[in-house]
Amino acid sequence: MVMKCMIVDDEPPATKIIESYIAEVSGLELVAICHNAVEAFQLLQRTPVDLLFLDIKMPRMSGLELLSGLTALPKIIITTAYREYAFDGYEFDVVDYLLKPIPFTRFLKAIAKMNRWTLATQQDYEVNKEAFLYLRVDRRMRKVLTDDILYLESRKDYVKVICRQETFVIKHTLGALENMLSEHHFLRVHRSFIVATRKITSFSAQRLLLGQTYLPIGRLYKGAVIRALGAAEDKPPRPSGHSHDASADRRPGRK
To answer: For residue range 130-169, what is the model confidence (pLDDT) as tens digits?
Structure first.
């Protein structure tokens, strides 16, 4: 499968180097070069890509600001001369972080890492996509595919289960559901929320995004969330198009 690539960098010499590297690697196809993040943002609305080679420090809009504005993220390889931005990149679950000048061998290592990540994700998804739970809904035991669940929200003695196509309420505790879902890539991010990690689009220290839904990260859960999402390089999140805004039900600042 050919992976469509975009380069976003305001330095022509760096752009030419990455362009030449892409041309030498089978399976990579360069479809666009943008010399600033604003141009890239506009182009990505019309032409989605699989892999973004992204500089961080650029005029008008930085690379990280570009990522913050996107609702669906491609795979990202950061290319920059500034080592101090490395931690910030973890918020967007970047594949790798390349420091300029970039040797070809280091470029190849990043591509190999991305390929391993992609393969592991595809295999893991195929194994787990038919996993399911039986939940009591309207006095019946109902089969619910775990891959359909976006997140769960505690409402005192009840839990609201938000799925791709529907939402329903069950009489259960969030703690018990956390144990049931622990093997299916779900993460407790707040005392009131459990989320499907594959559906996370992006996250910060205070909140995360699932499609167009913002959910808060509780103070006591912050360290575990950042470790789980930032370090789990073999399990990148899967974007979701769910449009319900949970912030209408709960203010993000309330823990």
So the answer is: 677 888 888 788 888 888 899 999 988 899 999 988 999 9
| 31, 50, 57, 98 from 215: Cα distances, Å | 34, 26, 29, 31
Residue keyed to tokens 């420091």? 99
Tokens 């594949």, residue located: 95
Structural domains of the chain sorted by starting position, each given as residue range(s) with its CATH number in brackets:
3-126 (3.40.50.2300), 133-248 (2.40.50.1020)
Residue owning tokens 């990522």: 67
| Confidence class for position 48, pLDDT limits 50, 70, 90 | confident
How do strand 193-196 and strand 202-203 relate by DSSP bridges? unpaired
pLDDT tens readout for residues 100-136: 999 999 999 999 988 887 776 555 555 555 677 888 8
Contacts of 249 (CB under 8 A, 6+ apart): 153
Q: Answer left, alpha or beta for residue 26, where phi above 0 means left and psi between -120 and 50 means alpha.
A: beta
Beta bridge partners of 239: none
